Amino acid sequence: MTSERFDAVIVGAGFAGIGAAIQLKRMGYENFVILDREDDLGGTWYVNHYPGLAVDVPTTTYSYFFEPNPNWSRLFATGNEIKQYADDVADKYDVRRHMRFSTTVEGARWDEDARLWRVGLADGQTLSTQYLITATGFLSQPHVPDIPGITEFDGRIVHTTAWDDSYDPAGERIAIIGTGATAVQLIPELAKKAADLTVYQRTPIFVVPKFDLHFSERAKRLFARVPVTQRIIRAVTDSIYEWVVSVGVVHYWRTRGRFNIAAADLSKTLRWATIRDKQLRAKLTPDYDFGCKRPTFSNSYYRTFNKPHVHLQDGGIARMEADGIVANDGTKTVVDTLVLATGFDLWEANFPAIEVIGRNGRNLGKWWRDTRFQAYQGVSMPLFPNYLSLASPYAFLGLNFFNTMEYQMRHMERLLGEMKQRGATTFEVTEEANTRYLDRMTELLGESLFLNADCASARSYYFNPSGEPTLLRPMSTRKAIKEAGEFPLTDYQIN
Ligand code: NAP
Hints:
By secondary structure, this protein is an alpha/beta fold. About 35% of the residues lie in helices and about 15% in strands.
């Protein structure tokens, strides 16, 4: 078989793929490639560009620790600034030249004889590589709901991940399905221009006020000249977010959910202060505990529903017809455009995002479903030699994706460093170490919000289809980074 041969193939050119590439370069690897199905880098921050897009983790925290950005215009920066940051980092660390865009990976299979991964591309090519790193993100496969009659609709249908920048909502009759973090940002923007906007809500979301800050030119110059000033702000925002995850999620049982009750009250106060109509307020009120489903920040979302041309429909959708939507209560709304803010198919399509076949023909997706979702230290699985899966069960530290990435980079450093030192060709996590980690995660989650709060009606993607909350790694960033630098090397078979 003739195929291009690499030391490493990274799938995904978002922040995880960029981070993995930087780590490889730090360790002296140059013969690697980053593949991405899109035609540019940035992952979610390239794909998403709907109006109102911004991050709701402070940008001082939402960035690589080793690469602070003095140029953020505000605390909660807009999508295009974050995309710019991805571009700047990729250029500064010289990883862009390793990227191949518009390249869809179909799957990867471990070749035991050659001790290589064979990576199959949609165009029929096969690449060979010693290491396979999937950096496909948690929210990369758009979910399109299966609504009866949706194919009969004559108007425009747009998913928020495929926003058409030339689309002008002015004067349009628009329906939007979904009230997740994306919809919370988009709805106020659409309402500014649309002639009529109907929001189809299935599960209300907790929204709390957003305390945003503008960084003046003077502040930016200070951050650039005296980086410690920005570091101090980061220490504050890191600590706040770390504390929120600790008391509100990881140690929920210990705190008796007090933080969550206070946060739910804050959201209630915001609704009370902005919406006079009692019935409307009740419809927008979640009936699950704060944190079961990802909450969000906005100062304009609730207020938007006061506008006379904005309607909330929470009775469910019966079907679509050529010119509109019929709700379960029989009400028909005629619309020109249907916006699907329906999120992502996390568990079915994303775990894993490509077919991965390891040793003895073990199929990763099937194995996860036949047994339990699991990954040692959120990165590796038994019978998958030389494979690091960055979007794995028990990987995500909650709220800030960059912290997750940074401990994974450290794990790479320790593991691949040992490989180099021993002149080894393969690593594989042992069954015993994997089971030990899974048992520990299961035990730690016993104290978490997910197993102690009332999440029954939340329909939260934090839970897998079996009802287990296997997304979160329930520990502090400090602990995860420490473990990534100290895990016993005997947890891997290194040959
Ligand atoms: P999401 O949170 O999964 O929300 C999808 C919405 O679509 C939900 O309201 C869901 O209702 C609804 N939906 C899906 N299928 C439906 C159907 N068949 N009928 C009716 N409603 C349906 O997705 P998202 O809003 O795109 O956000 C995903 C994640 O991206 C967020 O949780 C966050 O992590 C990230 N994000 C972050 C930011 C930020 O930093 N500011 C912004 C946007 C997104 P149910 O709840 O009933 O399922």
